Amino acid sequence: MSAAREAAPQAAPEELEAKLIAPDELRLPDLSGLIKGATAVRPPSRHLEAIYFDTADLRLARNGITLRYRSGEDGPPWTVKLPEGSSHAALRRREVSFDGASGPVPPQVADLVRAYARSRPLVPVARLQTDRTPIEIRGPDGRPLAEITDDRVTVYDEHGQRTGGFREIEVEVRAEGRAGGRLLRAAVGRLRAAGCRAEPPVPKMIRVLGPRASGPPDVVVPRIGADATVDTLLRYATARSVAQILRHDPGVRLGEDPEEVHQFRVATRRLRSDLRTFASLLDQGPVSDLRGRLRLLGAKAGAARDADVLLMTSV
């Protein structure tokens, strides 16, 4: 069976996670009782090998997206993680997993990030080997509430040469709402007291690749003020809509949330309108072609949106 046929997306709930750096000599504290009645259970350790893919100019990483193939654990090996927001202490990411063989990125996986990569090929940019010691936090009823992983990571470049390593403690919360936030804060507080160092929450791959991976995305919405020039207003208007199209494109392709389609459609219509408003400042040949493509794209999104609305009103 080809990799393309094997690849089948499996969306996981949104992750809430914090990451801490630990010294090599750190001994993990007792993590029972983070919330009332919670216990800590140690599943078997695992050895993981991951290959991260991106464009040569790291377009995915600069937009907060990671794409990897990882062996050594249960479940589909291909994973795309999409940003859902972050704070100074935690990341919120949506994880989508696919079956498929190792090797080139399967077409269905590549399709999910196509709006960001566009015509650039997806190539290996980093290889990580991780010796993982997991700790599962369970509630009084035995239900998993969080997983805390002690990861000793060895880093290799795309040519297989070792370039370094680090020890990272990751707290991934499964409990939702305020309970999840309390559990996250309790776990981070206990780990910091034991000697861990809290750092800005960034994915492993971005930490490994450094400043190049944490640079600005290729579409940046400029700030505008009362003295903004017409050129600045043009850049603001177009970048705002393009950024919204990019942000919602993966959700449209997954087809799970009608709001993604709505926001995508709004952005295409607004961009068409902005291009018409600033027509006198633009080369009309390419702009006319682009507006036609946006009209077609908006019509397709509109048809999908109308079907969703009909479905919701008929329930």
Provide the descriptors you would attach to this structure in a database record.
eight-stranded antiparallel barrel, 315 residues, alpha+beta, single chain, 2 domains, Hypothetical Protein Pfu-838710-001, elongated, disordered N terminus
Describe this structure in words.
The protein is 37% helix and 28% strand. It is an alpha+beta fold and 315 residues long. It has two domains: 3-212, Hypothetical Protein Pfu-838710-001 (Beta Barrel); 230-314. It has an eight-stranded antiparallel beta barrel with strand order 2-7-6-5-4-8-9-10. The two termini are 39 Å apart.
Topology record:
Elements: H1 3-6, E1 10-11, E2 15-21, E3 39-41, E4 46-54, H2 59-62, E5 66-71, E6 78-86, E7 91-98, H3 107-112, H4 114-117, E8 123-138, E9 144-156, E10 162-173, H5 177-194, E11 197-198, H6 204-209, H7 230-254, H8 258-277, H9 284-314
Antiparallel strand pairs: 1-7, 2-7, 2-10, 2-11, 3-8, 4-5, 4-8, 5-6, 6-7, 8-9, 9-10
Helix pairs in contact: 7-8, 8-9
Short synopsis of the structure:
With 315 residues, the chain is of the alpha+beta class. 37% of the residues lie in helices and 28% in strands. It has two domains: 3-212, Beta Barrel (Hypothetical Protein Pfu-838710-001), CATH 2.40.320; 230-314.
Number of spatially distinct domains: 2
Taking the alpha carbons of the first and last residues, their distance comes to 39 Å
Helix content: 25-40%
The global form is elongated
Q: What is the CA-atom radius of gyration, in angstroms?
A: 22 Å
Number of H/I helices? 9
Let me know the number of strands.
Answer: 11
Q: Strand pairing plus helix content: what structural class?
A: alpha+beta
Mean pLDDT: 87
Which CATH architecture of the largest domain would you pick?
Beta Barrel
Major β-sheet profile: 8 strands, antiparallel, barrel
Largest sheet, spatial ordering of strands? 2-7-6-5-4-8-9-10
CATH topology of the largest domain: Hypothetical Protein Pfu-838710-001
User: Could you list the spans in which at least 5 consecutive residues all have pLDDT below 50?
Assistant: 1-6
How would you spell out the order of helices and strands?
Answer: HEEEEHEEEHHEEEHEHHHH
